[in-house]
Fold:
Amino acid sequence: MKLLTKEMQDDMARQMTYKARDIDMTLYNALDGTMERDFVLDSLMLYRTKDGGFAGGLYIDNYNTNTSVYQIYEAFRLMDMVGFDSSCDNELYTDIVNKACNYLYNRAEFIDNKWNPNVKSNDDFAHSKEFSFTKENKELFGYHPTAAILGYTLIFNKPTKAYYKKALQAANKMIDEFLTMDKITKYEFISFNSFYNSVKDLNLFPKLEEFKNKLIKMAEDAVSSDFESDDTIKPLDCALYISSKKLDELKELQLDYLISSIASFGLWDHKKAWGYDKYAEEDSAMIKWVGAETVNNYFILKKYGRIE
Structure:
């Protein structure tokens, strides 16, 4: 079993200082314990819009300066990564969650029990092909990031909040729909895993065990050990928060692969291209991704006890 050694961690922290965005540096420091997590909230404010959402490349592959559901998901994902939940009494945390949820539940279009992650104004800014405002992309994302956002809403808000009650209703409907589905996309695996992780201890859903068991079966059928390709569904895509003998064995192999694939400069390269040669900003995005990719992988390695 490979570990991220102390020497590798020291080099990683040093290189992050040179190469990472402020938000990624703050996240990394919060994860390794050298900085209070509240600073993550301050860093997120650099990306908050007037309507309380998030934009401006918080998720790097979309440079739109207008709020989109996917950018709010990214903000919530980062907050969850460092452990924020409704027990937090930081006023900025409350303000961020309230205004983002107001956008989601009162302003954003919610059709067929899903948010569209993209907005039409994406097409006015540099973005990867997946963030074009098309019917095909809406189908590609499916229940992502809706499922994850519903879970985050339930752990970020008190049960007395209207957003909590709306999320609870939508989540029950989503679980029923999931139990009828024959196949899901890689993005839906990510979001359904996130949802399960958020709600597994809340005792809210009588069908949650059935949900988990079906998600495990679907993951076992879909998972690939081809860790190089962007097109495959990898164990840490489809089973980050669920477990079975087959999935756990593949996760261990992928964790070894992650540690082996650190670039010579001490961080992880980002390999996923934008899917077309339409925007020069793709080059700068790939540079920004180095820090973000490192944070995501460091979080996973820490979760699975691979940090020395």
